[in-house]
Amino acid sequence: MKLAKKIFETALSEGRTFVLEHEAKDIMKEYGMPIPAYGTATTADDAVTKASEIGYPVVLKILSKDILHKTDAGGVKLNLKNDDEVRDAFEEIMANAKRYGEEKGIEVDLSRGVFITQFAEMGTEVIIGVTKDPQFGHAIMFGLGGIFVEVLKDVTFRLIPLEEVDAREMVREIKAAKILDGVRGEDPRDVDALVKVILAVSKMVDENPEINEIDCNPTFVYERGKGVLVVDARILIDNPNAKSSSSH
Question: Is CATH 3.30.1490.20 the right assignment for the domain spanning 37-119?
């Protein structure tokens, strides 16, 4: 996977401990994961043009090597429905990011502008994650999202790499697995598509050992035959040459 290798090499050379959101989506796309339409823009006019191409509603997020937690910096605007809302959101995100840098005492690089993506239709929310243990190596985690992971801790783990049988077992062994079968008249979810995503994450990590952590959250699972969308993803990397600014 040449593009993924190039993106990780660039991030490492820039002293970053994470890949930017459009880079994460590029990597996921290369590994065959289903993601909403997306693009980037460096001006308000560019953002309007790109949003119109993607189709409303859209989401805007700050793109900066100095900001990992975008929400904390006021760098996220959701469910924008027209050109005026996108234009206003772009200006507000840039102003918020600049102010965030001033409060942190750092000069925030705003040259990459914003990430723009389709506002995804809600499905059954699941989370797919990866952690790296010093002794055992990479492990992949799966669970239903929202309250199931936050409060009930209803998740399961496997060491990477996975076989298909492992991924299917993961989906079945969480306590809330029956929700994916369809409850209260709902149709069953697309478990086959979900298994493919879990296996794609496993393959991505197996082939790129510099990955330290992944958080595909939320990932929406739709009705059987209608697939899955990985809506948001964060990829952290091990970088011995990390600059202090990358931690903000």
Answer: yes
